[in-house]
């Protein structure tokens, strides 16, 4: 979603040396959508429960840290706070990040640093970490924004250069009058758009065909909405489409029929595609609906699986604040639990009756979201209304007008 003027620019995370992935997840029988063919794998044998230590994070299930933080990543606490230390498995069957973030969200930065100090001291004694690795982790923790206050001061303006529109809002007119639609959006101040579709088909255009139209309107395309099938089957086409229109992000969505096993498998697909696309200067993002928060087993939600099992070096989240709010999940709570993981946001408001509202006309506190954006790592925010009234352009411009006046 939105970015504050104080949000730091993204810098690529260091990629750790390849380490063996943690013992297999307890795969469940997959309920699969047409675009995702998931194998039904046997549950791992002899999966032991946590034996002492600091234990798994909240809602980690009965198997030792099932659906926990991937050991393919580094110990990482947000933008500017990458330790560069591999997220080693611990003797409790978890990972370093599992044991540290078990206490999230942290009330204060001091509490967070004290937790990191205590956990890493024990892990050095257990020979999971070296003394040098511990020092690097402590430096990253001290440099992080975790636990720091993010008050609403009412004195800061939204950086409109980092605000765009999700193309789905104007889906009714883009196929027949893309030039007029883009010109109208530019006329009310939009500087960015995120076209929705699949690689090779955005409102009937390829990215190469759409690019001259966005260029003429003076609108940039930082992100493209593509399909999971695109990432699975044609990463080269995805890269070509992104390059053709200048996009630095590509994002997908999931399915309400998925089990936690499906979310785990999807995380692996995102990691693989994200690593391949990172060589092209492109980051992969996952866009949520509400079902990711409602699909839950043993206190672990599908969204938790996606965040914990994806590697921040290659994958970020595009949080749709409307859909999160529809399940009574606050964006700022997610920012505190998973700092630095939300480089993109969908800015959508929810009315009292649960219906879609233009930004500022509903119940979501966008000032709080913008104030916490540095913790979240936000770079771009895209306004959206799934059922715009009286039309997509008018709805979009109304939302942007609110953001232009907002002080947070």
From TrEMBL:
Residues 1-23 are annotated as: Disordered. GO terms for molecular function: isomerase activity. Gene3D superfamilies: Divalent-metal-dependent TIM barrel enzymes (3.20.20.150). The keyword Isomerase applies. Residues 11-23 have a biased composition (Basic residues). Pfam families: AP_endonuc_2. Keywords: Carbohydrate metabolism, Isomerase, Signal. The keyword Signal applies. Residues 1-42 form the signal peptide. InterPro entries: IolE/XylAMocC-like (IPR050312), Xyl_isomerase-like_sf (IPR036237), Xyl_isomerase-like_TIM-brl (IPR013022). Residues 183-372 form the Xylose isomerase-like TIM barrel domain. This is Sugar phosphate isomerase/epimerase. It comes from Promicromonospora sukumoe.
